[in-house]
Amino acid sequence: MNFTTSDKISVQKIEKSRINEVDFDNLTFGKDFSDHMFECDYINGEWVHPTIRPYGPLTISPAAKVFHYGQAVFEGMKAYKDANGKVFLFRPDQNHARINKSAKRMAIPEFPKDIFFEALHKLIDLDRDWVKPGNGNSLYIRPFVMATQEGVSASPSDQYKFMILLSPVNAYYTGDVKVVVAEEYSRSANGGVGAAKAAGNYGAQFYPTNLAREKGFQQVIWTDANEHKYLEEAGTMNVFFRINDTLYTAPTSDRILDGITRKSVIALAKKDNIPVEERPILVSEIVEASKNGTLKEIFGAGTAAVISPVSTFNYKDVTYELPPTAGGYSTKFKKELTDIQYNISEDPFGWRYEV
Amino acid sequence: MNFTTSDKISVQKIEKSRINEVDFDNLTFGKDFSDHMFECDYINGEWVHPTIRPYGPLTISPAAKVFHYGQAVFEGMKAYKDANGKVFLFRPDQNHARINKSAKRMAIPEFPKDIFFEALHKLIDLDRDWVKPGNGNSLYIRPFVMATQEGVSASPSDQYKFMILLSPVNAYYTGDVKVVVAEEYSRSANGGVGAAKAAGNYGAQFYPTNLAREKGFQQVIWTDANEHKYLEEAGTMNVFFRINDTLYTAPTSDRILDGITRKSVIALAKKDNIPVEERPILVSEIVEASKNGTLKEIFGAGTAAVISPVSTFNYKDVTYELPPTAGGYSTKFKKELTDIQYNISEDPFGWRYEV
Ligand SMILES: Cc1ncc(COP(=O)(O)O)c(C=O)c1O
Ligand SMILES: Cc1ncc(COP(=O)(O)O)c(C=O)c1O
């Protein structure tokens, strides 16, 4: 084994790559992992031992607080390869800022920006061949932090592990998405942790999402927990509504994740002189707009799915059809975003970050 | 799920007990663990390989869903030893029913009752010496289930691990408890997972509880997320209020844990002809009752803390003092409960369960 040391990160390379065992044309999202992973521990008030080592299992106490109290946060990013083999991230500073915002809400210590970026550089550099070119192909990057202190009392951990895993992926969704508007269950509370990428927010959605799936819908659009009157976001996407030519999306709040794709779509719309309104959106408005033919599009926006057009939405057991998406905003924004991500177009906002 | 015979649990005993390394008079809650633990895996739709083995670390993928999506639930129980060395649990059927209720909400498969009980019997039998007699001493029992499938896509795991850990404890709180009534943060949403002992519910409380601690309060009493007008429960306790001679506690809902201590206190109160009302309680009522001298007691009720009298509560930066607790309901219920738990009194409700 090769051990090299940089300024900070110690690197232990794999002996033999697993890359030939992976069928890159038929990937299941988040199932395969690259050769290496990054790991860094928080002990005695300090982040120590930043290490890259072969992807593999952890040895961890069954009393680690993450198992009992869900004290854990994560991020989702992607690396994209252009036609010349250059690799880019998309607005990674935003992911770093957000994991620390999430961490704060979950009483987890912040992770230093310099190690975050150095880890991304070194790790992606080692596993560069795992980033495949071609639209839809990318290397999904999963930074996360979890509470590792051994102890079953409900109080913040004094030890944490920060890690980065890399998983090669193809496009997330195939085809249009059917959604149901939440009427009974909810995703987050005022004053809760909905704005954080806290682990428990996701597990909490599995049961109501299963109920939706049994009825033939892939996703739930969550509404406010209080009255179920306002549309908020989907499980892993923010949601946009187009009525006539105006784009609407819910404002961010302590219940809604401040999505990077969401803010990028808003920026692109403004640049393109498309009117955008960030304001609370009544379910009844959307139903009404669907009935009178002014509702042109609904689409989700998120790192995993990029832009995901909704074909039908269901509310109070009535299904509303959306017009065909060809030529709409969703197609346009998807192209504009991915052209920037894959280094096909100019990058007027400086969103690309080469690694 | 056909586990009916006791031969199904395989047992691997420790070579040398660690019991002499533990100072049983000075325990930190949830820090020390007994010699053995129980483990059972859910694979291909079945709970398999129920095993008791020496307490020790797990080997687990860093991509296990529990780390990323907080898909995990737990229980908290205690074993009590009487003066003759007999060991008892308190209403363990309730914990089994509740872990399955929590599991359902978190899209986790239910755990069979027969293995749950058989595991408790065998495990406690092996580690019987870890249950120390004497009021306040007990062996805290932590059953939990976590998602173990390797994969970073936000969907339910297809593999789980159910475990039971044992941790010797002394009394949980020392002295009276100062609490603050939540005005900004909240614990759970209508239609959320507050009624489940879902891991993420606890981590989500750490930050606001830290803020309360910095101001000198040990606990937060959560209010409804919508208006912060109604008193709900504390972090790991349900809460009772005594105005004149009547006891009030919030009704259970999808936001509030259906506590076993809570329902036991209600049953004891009814037996003792103490009026009890389960109904929404306004913060303003309690403030008013404190001002006019009719608020006699506030106490928390939960397995870890048993009955925990509140000495002061803070609301909108005003601190309200409670009268001294001696001779009150909290003292009475604590004695009645622990007398049943430690086999000192009769057990009119059949709550004791010998192991
Ligand atoms: C709850 C939630 N909303 C929205 C998003 C979209 O955010 P982003 O565009 O930063 O990926 C995600 C995924 O990250 C999410 O988990
Ligand atoms: C949120 C919450 N409320 C109340 C309780 C008290 O429940 P029990 O009396 O069953 O221990 C607990 C602890 O289990 C809890 O976690």
Automatic annotation (TrEMBL), chains A, B:
Cofactors demanded by this protein: pyridoxal 5'-phosphate
InterPro entries in UniProt: Aminotrans_IV, Aminotrans_IV_CS, Aminotransferase-like, B_amino_transII, BCAT-like_C, BCAT-like_N, BCAT_family
Gene Ontology MF terms: L-isoleucine-2-oxoglutarate transaminase activity; L-leucine-2-oxoglutarate transaminase activity; L-valine-2-oxoglutarate transaminase activity
Catalytic activity: L-valine + 2-oxoglutarate = 3-methyl-2-oxobutanoate + L-glutamate; L-isoleucine + 2-oxoglutarate = (S)-3-methyl-2-oxopentanoate + L-glutamate; L-leucine + 2-oxoglutarate = 4-methyl-2-oxopentanoate + L-glutamate
Pfam families membership: Aminotran_4
GO biological process, one term: isoleucine biosynthetic process
Cited Gene3D superfamilies: 3.30.470.10, D-amino Acid Aminotransferase, subunit A, domain 2
Domain of life: Bacteria
Enzyme class: transferase
Keyword tags: Amino-acid biosynthesis, Aminotransferase, Branched-chain amino acid biosynthesis, Pyridoxal phosphate, Transferase
UniProt pathway annotation: Amino-acid biosynthesis; L-isoleucine biosynthesis; L-isoleucine from 2-oxobutanoate: step 4/4; Amino-acid biosynthesis; L-leucine biosynthesis; L-leucine from 3-methyl-2-oxobutanoate: step 4/4; Amino-acid biosynthesis; L-valine biosynthesis; L-valine from pyruvate: step 4/4
Modified residues (N6-(pyridoxal phosphate)lysine): 197
Entry's EC annotation: 2.6.1.42
Function: Acts on leucine, isoleucine and valine.
Family: Belongs to the class-IV pyridoxal-phosphate-dependent aminotransferase family.
Protein name: Branched-chain-amino-acid aminotransferase
Source organism of the structure: Ulvibacter litoralis
Higher taxonomy: Bacteria, Pseudomonadati, Bacteroidota, Flavobacteriia, Flavobacteriales
